[in-house]
Design brief:
By secondary structure, the protein is α/β, with parallel strands linked by helices. The chain contains 13 helices and 18 strands. It folds into 3 domains: 236 residues, FAD/NAD(P)-binding domain, CATH 3.50.50; 134 residues, FAD/NAD(P)-binding domain (3-Layer(bba) Sandwich), CATH 3.50.50; 69 residues, no CATH class. Helix 1 crosses helix 13 and helix 7 packs antiparallel against helix 8. It is globular and about 70 Å long. The protein binds flavin-adenine dinucleotide. The site of flavin-adenine dinucleotide has 32 residues, from helix 1, strand 2, helix 2 and helix 13.
């Protein structure tokens, strides 16, 4: 491993990987050879958490292959079987691995994959940056792309390390998690022989889907108990009703972020009350919503990107139809109970092998395992050392979940950001209140690579002649 690189990509997930792919394409023929390091603390190169080795073959990709046409994935599927079916995230991960490894192997640029955690980042005295790693190593970089994914999940402080507590569903593969459930549950079903899930988001419905398909768990598990503020799982699929027609979004006067969000919410609520699925409502509402959004003033766009992200995500979230079906089936069979309650992260407790979660009014739910699906913590509450360092130097943007960037996604000179931490970004033509879908990440990785490759190619003569030092 060298100690200085022209480009360091921090994070080997989809954002970092696709950025690398696009950079290698763009720098195929222009400029001299450059050195690139990809740094990942978990060694999850070309996959990250959702598509990497922690991902089970049970976890489904939300996108049909055809929807990912900006990548060679549909062609790769055809060459390896078929399209027109839903694949697992692991399948998409295998595509990423193969594609990126081939791109690196065929490139004239040097690419090092380094397993290390960046815990510090500061501007070097000359040009570039100095990255400090958890193991004490120091890397110098001319240009840095930050692609560390979302802020770490909300923690339950009293439960770290307790047996049966699962702090992050995606640090475990399903068969491994199922084995632990079998170990911890008593052999006979009884009240309390339950699995507690905090949250009813996509991760929670994925867990319900896995549990619903497990023949081994069926004879033991009394029920899954899911607790969330609103007590509602995302739905999936299409209702088959005639197309939904938005009404609130067609009213005049939707010239503020708040009014637009209220109208979207009203239409989605009306659709659900009439038996439509969220997908029906979103498909019908989205074009009208974005027509209004496009003509909002920049301040109102900013307000939307920073203040309305949570409401927008909650109103529009959906899940694969199979997951929705599993939730409905488990509810109908009495094997899933959903409780609406605000969860104080300090309140869940564990004693004698039983977890207890207070749900208000003196009531509590109990279970043998507790799975945390509460989602990402705001950056201000994170214990991630690198994110704390960036927040200290550059601040946090108004969304509380992202960092301030300019219109090129740069936090500072030669320091760029990609992925979910762009939440809260707005400029006249692009607004990001969350960046967590493959097609959008791929599109932004492409345009960012255009910017960075252009810039690096312009500076290449300097780099090549050794005229540029990456500071100390
Ligand atoms: C479980 C799950 C399922 C999803 N499913 C879909 C789907 O089906 N379809 C869809 O369109 N979108 C999906 N998404 C959304 C989107 O594709 C992901 O959010 C995407 O993986 C984001 O990629 P990323 O590279 O920004 O982050 P990540 O994939 O999280 O990668 C970040 C990487 O950075 C590394 N890292 C972090 N901090 C440091 C540090 N300090 N030092 C070194 N390395 C570090 C981590 O180890 C990690 O490998 C899903 C997201 C999740 C979480």
């Amino acid at each position: 491993m060298r100690s200085a690189y022209d480009l360091v990509i921090l994070g080997g997930g989809l954002s970092g990987s696709w950025f690398l792919f696009e950079m290698l394409l763009k720098l195929k023929t222009i400029g001299p050879e450059i050195s690139i390091a990809v740094l990942d603390r978990a060694g999850l190169f070309f996959g990250g958490l959702p598509y990497g080795e922690y991902s089970s073959d049970r976890y489904m990709l939300m996108n049909p292959a055809e929807e990912l046409e900006q990548t060679p994935y549909p062609d790769w599927c055809r060459a390896n079987g078929s399209v027109g079916q839903m694949f697992s995230r692991r399948h998409f991960g295998r595509f990423l691995q193969e594609t990126l490894r081939a791109a690196v192997a065929g490139s004239r640029h040097r690419v090092d994959l380094i397993v290390a955690e960046a815990v510090d980042l500061r501007r070097a005295d000359g040009a570039g940056y100095v990255l400090g790693c958890g193991d004490g190593a120091v890397l110098r970089a001319g240009t840095v792309l930050l692609a560390p994914g979302s802020a770490p999940l909300r923690a339950l402080p009293g439960l770290e390390g307790v047996p049966g507590y699962v702090p992050d569903l995606y640090r475990r593969c399903w068969p491994d998690l199922e084995r632990e459930m079998l170990d911890r549950l008593d052999p006979q079903p009884h009240e309390g022989n339950a699995i507690l899930v905090l949250g009813t988001n996509a991760a929670a419905s994925e867990l319900v889907w896995c549990v619903s398909r497990s023949q081994a768990l069926r004879p033991r598990l009394q029920r899954v108990i899911a607790v969330s503020r609103h007590g509602r799982f995302p739905d999936g699929g299409l209702s088959g009703l005639p197309p939904f027609v938005p009404v609130a979004l067609e009213q005049p006067g939707l010239d503020s972020a708040a009014a637009l969000m209220a109208a979207l919410q009203a239409d989605i609520d009306r659709a659900r009350a009439a038996g439509y699925s969220t997908m029906d409502a979103v498909l019908a509402a989205r074009p009208v919503f974005f027509r209004h959004f496009a003509v909002l003033g920049l301040d109102e766009k900013r307000l939307f990107a920073t203040q309305h992200a949570e409401a927008w995500k909650l109103a529009t979230r959906r899940t694969p139809e199979a997951y929705d079906g599993a939730v409905r089936r488990m509810l109908a069979e009495g094997r899933l109970q959903v409780v609406a309650a605000d969860i104080d992260p300090a309140a869940p407790s564990w004693s004698g092998g039983v977890f207890r979660v207070p749900v208000g009014g003196g009531d509590a739910v109990r279970g043998r395992m507790l799975v945390n699906c509460l989602g990402a913590a705001p950056i201000a509450a994170t214990r991630d050392r690198l994110l704390q360092r960036i927040a200290e130097t550059y601040g946090i943007n108004g969304s509380g979940h992202g960092f301030p960037v300019n219109s090129d996604f740069a936090i500072d000179t030669d320091l760029y950001l990609l992925g979910p931490l762009l939440a809260g970004f707005a400029r006249p033509d692009h607004s990001i209140w969350h960046l967590e879908s493959i097609p959008r990440i791929v599109a932004y990785a492409r345009s960012l690579a255009e910017t960075v490759a252009g810039r690096m190619a312009r500076e290449a003569a300097d780099i090549f002649s050794g005229g540029k030092e990456y500071g100390t």
